[in-house]
Amino acid sequence: MGCGSSPFSIFNKNPEQRAPAIIVDGMEKDKYHIFVGQDSKMMDFLTRLIPERAAKIIYSQMRSLLK
Asked: For residues 39 and 11, is the Cβ–Cβ distance under 8 A?
């Protein structure tokens, strides 16, 4: 799946090639949270702020992928 082809593409996403490097860098720095792309940061924020609503958003996005 390329950049901009998912329902979450309204957020700026990092290229898929950078994801492994971001994850390894975060692990090496002993980070508790590692975010790849703005969508993951936004979903983390929403799940902390309004967990039930965030779960519904995720559910509706995943459901639309299965149609």
From this structure: yes
The answer to whether 8 and 18 are in contact (CB under 8 A) is no
Q: Are 33 and 45 in contact (CB under 8 A)?
A: no
Spatial separation of the C-alpha atoms in residues 60 and 55, rounded to whole Å: 9
| pLDDT tens series, the chain, 67 aa | 444 455 555 455 556 778 889 999 999 999 999 998 888 888 899 999 999 999 998 899 888 888 7
* Cα angle 62, 56, 64; round to 5: 25
Indicate the pTM of the whole model: 0.60
